[in-house]
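[Automated response] Your request has been received and processed.

Submitted sequence:
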Amino acid sequence: MNSKAKIYLGLPASPSVTYDEYVYLQPDEAGQTLQNFQCKYPELFGGVMVYEATPSEANAVHGTPYADAVKGYLKDSSCATKPSNTSTRSGPTFPASSVAS
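Generated structure:
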C-alpha cells in the first residue's frame, strides 16, 4: 500500500442523483461524518467529492449550495489540517459554485 495515498469521500449533492434516497446525507449529517473521519484518520483523509455541481446549486440550504455547505464544515472543523507553505506545486482553485456540469 502506498503510504502517501489519501481517501476522498464521495457524497451525492442531492437525493435526485442517488439510486436510493437513504444514501443522501443532509449537509449537517455530511459535515458531522466528514469531521469525524477527518479527526479520527487525519493521515488518511484527503477530502471530499460532491456529485454533481448542478444538483448542488439547486440543493441550497439557507441560500448556500450543498457543496459550499459541506466545504464550510470541513474548514470549520477543530481538527482541520492547515495548508502547508512547503508545497512546490500549486494550481488554480475554484469555488464549488463555479464548476460547470
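Summary generated for your ticket: The radius of gyration is 14 Å. The longest helix spans residues 27-40.
If you did not submit this request, please reply to this message.
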